[in-house]
Hints:
Layout: E1 8-12, H1 15-24, E2 32-35, E3 41-45, H2 48-57, E4 63-64
Antiparallel strand pairs: 1-3, 1-4, 2-3
Amino acid sequence: METLGYSLARWADGGWDEVDKSDEDGKLFGTLIVEDRWGRPVILFRNDWKAADLEAQEKNLQLKPYSMPPMVV
């Protein structure tokens, strides 16, 4: 096993479309984009500054510190 250099995880409420747009613009440079067990996008950041900077630049990409499991019907 190998440790990753990321210390902060944020769920992208805008979904994959908003993550893809930000990634195409190069705004997610230095981050790692992964998905949780329900297929939702999670962005891993190296520090708080990068997350705050991204939130300030990308108004449509709402980052949340946690996410609730989907509702089971």
